Write the structure tokens for this entry.
Amino acid sequence: MLPVVSIVGRPNVGKSTLFNRLIGTRKAIVHDEYGVTRDRHYGESFWNGRDFTVIDTGGYLPDEMNVMVVGIREQVHIALEESDVILFVVDVKDGINTLDKAVANLLRQQDKPVLLVSNKADNEERRMNSTEFYELGIEDLFPVSSINGTGTGNLLDRVVELLPEEEEPEEENDIPKLAFIGRPNVGKSSLFNALLNDERAIVTDIAGTTRDSINSNLEYDDKEYLLVDTAGLRKRTKVKENIEFYSTIRTDRAIRECDIAILIVDAMQGFDAQDKRVIREAEKFNKGLVIVLNKWDLVPEKDTNTVREFEDYIYTSVPQLYYVPIVTISALNKTRIHRVLDVADEVIAERRKEISTPDFNDFLEQMLGEKPLPMKRGQQLKITYATQVKSNPPVFKFFMNSPHELPPNYRKYIENKIRERFGFLGVPITMVFRQK
Ligand code: GDP
Ligand code: GDP
């Protein structure tokens, strides 16, 4: 788990600008194949040899003043719960206002390290003016310009000093981590609780995690899992906008830390843009994937084809997910809930699968025979050799002439053929093509 730095402050002080600067070149390019664009609140940064996560808490805030004060208070609490260092951003162009004072009061009442960032200090005069913020009672003050980058190096030096000691790399631990993700009210907690409360389940809470942590160890049929529920925390928030913020933060974090992402969808509501975003995110991080269609009890007049129709609907709306297994359940009636674990087991095994190099090259030869590589710039493309360089998650490396000329549809063809031959149910496959 990487240390976490949160950015807090009232709207328009430049939190998201600072966030983008701290994420820098590591920022994922916002290019979404599913046509979903969305603000990012969560990213990774690297400075002086340390990796850490940055959270921008500015995403959702109601406009109305009364609600805003409550909203900010909750966001500060989220930041405190989630992070190791807090960056409290103020705007030197505007000076101190009441919301800044409210945030400062909350931050002074706790022990986490807080750095006061006087943003928009684009020139010397504004850097000088930043001293007025000492009035907020927070001593570590950094004038920065998030727009032109001035001062951010000093700020980052201090951030890195304040990060907790680097953890020893964890011992390889084979217990798979399953994250239950999905929109609010799809039934994440219901499924989570149904599995944990099952009489055959042996459950141990994980000690030493934060007070709101909702990870549990589940032993079932002699198999162990670590279950991560992303719903628990947000149940404490009252402001509507923060509910979404909570779930986004928890979801992004759970996705990065899990082995298998289990996307829960309400069968009556179907798949939406947010579901596509999270599953795409999980795919990008090469997590194992399972889709659960919950509330199956509510689907009227089911017959033998109904499951098939729902599967078709999902695979048609997001064709890229054709390799992801779908399970229909009712968390409420506890129907087929263990099927979720069985399918997760399958995906775990597939993700760990190793194909021997001779087998893979036999496959390669046959595949190339069925559909020869095209000519490019008067030259016959050739793949001479390929091998699985790692598993869990799987990565395949192909050696060829002119890797840049490989057409995307041929790439897709290779992936389809790998799946046809070797399976890899629910597992994103990484393929790298190198110049031979
Ligand atoms: P947020 O609401 O706190 O996330 O603020 P934004 O990052 O959206 O920034 C609000 C406005 O301040 C935008 O118009 C930014 O371009 C501007 N801004 C952010 N950082 C700086 C800065 O360092 N200098 C100046 N001059 N403007 C900035
Ligand atoms: P979460 O926000 O994703 O954790 O969703 P919850 O587990 O809190 O469930 C939201 C609502 O859906 C609750 O009222 C549940 O009782 C209901 N619910 C959950 N699973 C099912 C199900 O399988 N069938 C039906 N009919 N209702 C369900």
Remarks:
- Residues 25-38, 207-213 have pLDDT under 50 and may be disordered.
